[in-house]
């Protein structure tokens, strides 16, 4: 439950640093009155954080067991639990399915060819020991590839998978595959929670769009994806965890699908207008908002601090919080970051 805690200047004291992700700068950790984990939980469940959360307030883990068996591996490549070969592409710092030999030619083949792995055979205990959760931050695990469109693409390659969604002869098979994959996803969630009990949230990957538009219609989304999303997020919520979505692409016209699918938060890429999304939907789903860009080299410290205050006043209304998007991290200069923390701490606490 949210408690009013007066702001103290010594909260700005730096007590640690968090290493930057993907080569980015390290982030300082302040002497906050509650942990970042408690702050994130207050945002998700009370809609009343102590300060505006920033990306590092969540401690993302990526167990290698999941990444190699159900994800995309890494620089060394991998053969996943389904027998799909993944190759690392250095220029994009990511992996793709080895082209030219799709696992499925038609979704109607899936029951004959796809065998979901037995999760009980995996050494989860060793993996939990190798990838512990920092309990000071809100523990979040990212399920790359997810259980729906991305998974189907991994079996079929992109064009055949997209065509399958509008092929009446494959419709029943697509639906049954997604339902089976969703049930498997529930088992994955159960294992994660059993071996990482401090896990607060589950982040599901399912990319739905390109730079300019979604891959499929809203009708298709509601026919195949939304019911499965809701089943999985209901399961996550029943376990006392929050469910977040990673979905790349220009998807402003699909956000209602994500809301009806039961997701608690979405961090849209920058081709989406996160400001408009917050205005229209921020009371229904938490939005990762990207601040207006500025050049730290030519923007004075006073101006950066003003921008931080304006960001809070614009995107953190009572009962309608937001968090600063992962894609907005370049705005987190020392001046912007300090002012956003200080101002939001005072405003959320009712001391300004």
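Q: What amino acid sequence fits the structure above?
A:
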């Amino acid at each position: 439950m949210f408690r009013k805690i007066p702001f103290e200047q010594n909260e700005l004291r730096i007590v640690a640093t968090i290493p930057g992700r993907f080569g980015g700068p390290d982030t300082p950790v302040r002497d906050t009155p509650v942990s970042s984990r408690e702050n994130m939980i207050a945002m998700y469940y009370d809609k009343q954080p102590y300060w505006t959360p920033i990306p590092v307030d969540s401690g993302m883990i990526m167990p290698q067991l999941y990444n190699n068996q159900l994800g995309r591996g890494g620089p060394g490549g991998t053969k996943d639990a389904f027998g799909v070969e993944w190759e690392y592409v250095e220029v994009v710092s990511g992996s793709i399915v080895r082209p030219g030999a799709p696992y499925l030619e038609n979704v109607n083949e899936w029951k004959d060819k796809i065998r979901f792995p037995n999760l009980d055979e995996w050494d989860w205990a060793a993996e939990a020991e190798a990838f512990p959760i920092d309990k000071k931050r809100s523990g979040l695990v990212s399920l790359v590839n997810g259980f729906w469109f991305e998974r189907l693409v991994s079996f079929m390659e992109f064009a055949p998978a997209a065509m399958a969604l509008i092929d009446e002869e494959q419709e029943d098979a697509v639906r049954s595959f997604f339902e089976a994959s969703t049930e498997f996803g529930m088992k994955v969630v159960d294992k994660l929670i059993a071996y990482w009990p401090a896990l607060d949230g589950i982040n599901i990957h399912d990319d739905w769009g390109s730079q300019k538009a979604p891959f499929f219609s809203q009708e298709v989304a509601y026919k195949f994806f939304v019911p499965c999303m809701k089943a999985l997020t209901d399961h996550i919520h029943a376990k006392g965890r929050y469910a977040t979505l990673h979905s790349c692409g220009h998807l402003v016209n699909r956000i209602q699908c994500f809301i009806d699918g039961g997701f608690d938060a979405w961090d849209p890429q920058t081709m989406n207008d996160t400001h408009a999304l917050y205005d229209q939907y921020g009371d229904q789903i938490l939005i990762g908002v990207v601040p207006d860009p500025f050049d730290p080299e030519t923007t004075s410290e006073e101006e950066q601090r003003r921008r931080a205050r304006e960001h809070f006043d614009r995107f953190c209304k009572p009962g309608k919080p937001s968090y600063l998007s992962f894609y907005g991290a370049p705005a987190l200069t020392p001046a912007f970051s300090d002012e956003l923390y200080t101002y939001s701490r005072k405003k959320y606490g009712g001391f300004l």
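Q: And what stands out in the fold?
A: The radius of gyration is 21 Å.
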